[in-house]
Amino acid sequence: MPEGIILKGIGGFYEVLDKEDLDTVYTCKVRGVYRKEGELTPLPGDHVNYKILNSTKCVGHIEQIRKRKNSFVRPPVANIDQLAVVMAVTSPSPDLMLADKLLITCQTQDIKPLIIINKTDLDQEGLAERLQAAYSGTGFPVILLSKFRQESYDCLHEKLTGCTTAFAGQSGVGKSTILNAVFHNWIMETGDISDRIQRGKHTTRHVQLFRLNSGGFIVDTPGFSSFSVPDVSHESLEIFYPEFYDALGKCRFTGCSHTSEPDCAVKDLLDKGQLDEDRYNRYVELYKELKEKYDNRYRR
Ligand SMILES: Nc1nc2c(ncn2[C@@H]2O[C@H](COP(=O)(O)OP(=O)(O)OP(=O)(O)O)[C@@H](O)[C@H]2O)c(=O)[nH]1
Ligand SMILES: [Mg+2]
Ligand SMILES: [Zn+2]
Fold it and tell me: Which residue owns the Cα nearest ligand 1 atom 8?
C-alpha cells in the first residue's frame, strides 16, 4: 500500500503527498473507523498508508496512520523534527522566558531546537552577540538573520533541509517574513500554487506543510507560541539545561534544586562565569513556578 504524508486537512479531506512520487498529491478521506472514539484523528504531518481509489483524479483513502514521533493539539500537527525558536534583537524586545520554555518543550518532544535571532539590522548595541552568547552553552544551533541580508537566509535554508520544521516566537519577531523568504526561494512549485500566492496576505488559519526543493518540509501554523509552562516537573527541570550537565550530580545535596542550597555545583559554574546569569535566573524563576504548581496540585 502506498505511503504518504498529510500536508493539510480541511473539512474531512486530507491532502496526502505520495512518498515515492513527490509530484502527486492525493485527496483522501479517512475510513469511518477513525471516527470512533479513541481512534486517532489524522493530523498534518502524519505519515499514512493510503489506498488509491482513482489515480487520474488523484483520489484516495487513508487506511492507517503510522506511529507518531510527536503530536500537538494546538496547533494540530504531528511529526515535527525541528522547531525554529525565533526572537528579534529588538522590537519586540525578546521574551527569553518564552524562548527557554520552547526549548524545554522541544527536548520533551524529541524536537531539535534551532534558535533564530532576527532583525540583526536593528542591532546597535551588540545585543545579537549577547543573545548568541547566552545560548551558546546549550549547544543548540543559533543563526542570525535580517531581512536586509538575503544571504543570511541561505544559512537558514541549510538547516531546514531534510527536516520538518515549524516556527515559533512572539508576535512581530518576523516569522511570516522568514517564511515568505523561504517560500519565495525554496518551495516546490507543485501542489496548490494558489496557496503559495496567498501567503503573506492572510493570517494563517490552517496548518499546512510545504515541501522544500532540497528535501524536508516547513510547517506554516498559527499559534505555536502560546505554550504555557512546559509539562515537566520541577525536579526534572535541570535536565533541560544542557549547560548544567557538567555539574549535575556534583552538588553537596542530592536532589539539589540549584536555587539556594550551599555547595551547589551549578552555582559554582555560575560563579566561574560559565553560565549565562540571566538564563540561570530564569531557571530559578521557572523552578519556583513549577514547584508552586506541584505544591498546589490538590487545590483549585
Ligand atoms: N528591521 C527588520 N524588520 C523586520 C525583519 N523581519 C521582519 N521585520 C518586520 O517586522 C514586522 C513583523 O514581522 P512579521 O513577519 O509579520 O512577524 P510575525 O512573527 O509573523 O508576527 P505574528 O504573525 O504577529 O506572529 C514586519 O513589519 C516586518 O517587516 C528584519 O530582519 N529586520
Ligand atoms: Mg505572522
Ligand atoms: Zn545544585
Answer: 174
Which ligand 1 atom is at minimum distance from the Cα of 178?
15
- For the record, the C-alpha cell of 104 comes out as 524545554
Give the integer Cα–Cα distance in Å for 103 and 91.
Answer: 21
Residue of the CA atom closest to atom 32 of ligand 1: 119
Cβ atoms 293, 232 nearer than 8 A: no
- Asked if 160 and 218 touch (Cβ cutoff 8 Å), the reply is yes
Q: For residue 117, how far is its CA from the centre of ligand 2 (angstroms)?
A: 16
What's the CATH architecture for 234-295?
Answer: Orthogonal Bundle (1.10)
| Domain map (residue ranges) of the chain | 3-68, 77-220, 234-295
Select from 176, 180, 205 the residue to mutate for testing ligand 1; criterion: most ligand atoms less than 8 Å from CB: 176
The topology (CATH level 3) of 3-68 is OB fold (Dihydrolipoamide Acetyltransferase, E2P) (2.40.50)
Sequential pLDDT tens for the chain (300 residues) = 999 999 999 888 999 999 998 889 999 999 765 555 556 789 999 999 999 999 999 999 999 999 999 998 888 899 999 999 999 999 999 999 999 999 999 999 999 999 999 999 999 999 999 999 999 999 999 999 999 999 999 999 999 999 999 999 998 999 989 998 998 888 765 445 455 545 544 455 688 999 998 899 999 877 666 555 678 999 999 999 999 999 999 999 999 999 999 999 999 999 999 999 999 999 999 999 999 999 999 987
Which residue from 221, 215, 107, 224 is spatially nearest to 163, judged by alpha carbons?
215
Query: In this structure, which residue's CA is closest to atom 30 in ligand 1?
Result: 119
Ligand 1 pocket, residues with Cβ under 6 angstroms? 118-119, 121-122, 146-147, 169, 171-177
Question: In degrees, to the nearest 5, what angle opens at C-alpha 219 toward C-alphas 225 and 35?
Answer: 90
Ligand nearest to the CA of 225: 1
CATH topology for 77-220? Rossmann fold (3.40.50)
